[in-house]
Amino acid sequence: MPAAASARARLLRFFMRHAIKTRMHAKPDLGRIRRSMELVARYAPDRPRGVAMRKGVLAGVPVECSAPSGHVTDRRILYLHGGGFVSGSPRTHRGIAGRIARGADARVAVIDYRLAPEHPFPAALEDAAAAYRALLEQGAPPSRLALVGDSAGGNLVFALLLKLKEEGAPMPAAAVAMSPFVDLTGGGESLRTNAALDPLLHVAGLPAVLDAYAPKRDLKNPLLSPLFGDLKGLPPCLIQCGSDEILCDDAVRMQRALQRAGVDAELEVWSEMPHVWQAFARLIPEGRTALERICRFLRERMDDGVRAGHAA
């Protein structure tokens, strides 16, 4: 991983710290965060070239599908977006979904799962499971199917894998999690050691998110905190996180737990990168490089012999 952040990444960190962390995440207004994400996506859209997008429905769940333009691919990716379980949508993640579709040569379905607090746990997970089953019913072979998610979506990726295992359902070929939030009990040491370093997330804002998503729930439930689940039998996984994130230890501990369970699990800790920096691939080189690595990982595990792609 790069030893130091680029000049563009440092500017992004500065903006995040002063415009978002101190103003929005310290004392979060969940409705305001949700509206702000949608407004940015609406008025500053990120639509990668060479990608076709269409809307649809999977098992009653609204979805946006991105695919490489000009040819048909049978690779399928179910993308679970981040946003602290309370915000985010296919619109806010069109850029990252499109780049993965193009780079992994796959059709990427971003589901518009139900959000908390209107729809607390397990609504989002149920929507993800229904969408995954629908892809299988449509004929997507598990060897050509992968799960990808960021932040809260990374949590849902691992929770969904545990749910599929519990049900005896076919596992996908691979899973990717960017800055995953996998321990809702707050047991990661980086919540304290990186509290001042993290340019985006504020520790003080996490209780509001947990109260919205999992009110009065046992946060050690593996479907809420996948770190505590039985991880044996899960597919190959790639986890990326930034060294300064308050969630860095979630990623580190998850990869170690996966390896102890015999799962092929790779971890990349990127120096000084903010939470889900891959979403800013249009702005910073580290975002493009990280997505290229993700796409290569997915291509290698979703069967062989398909053309290479690019995530830039």
From TrEMBL:
Superkingdom assignment: Bacteria
Q: Where is the Alpha/beta hydrolase fold-3 domain?
A: 77-278
Q: Name one GO molecular function term.
A: triacylglycerol lipase activity
A Pfam family that this protein carries is Abhydrolase_3
Q: Keyword check for Hydrolase, yes or no.
A: yes
Known PANTHER family for this protein? Answer: AB HYDROLASE SUPERFAMILY PROTEIN C4A8.06C, ACETYL-HYDROLASE LIPR-RELATED
Task: State the name under which the record lists this protein.
Answer: Acetyl esterase/lipase
Supply the source organism's classification.
Bacteria, Pseudomonadati, Pseudomonadota, Alphaproteobacteria, Hyphomicrobiales
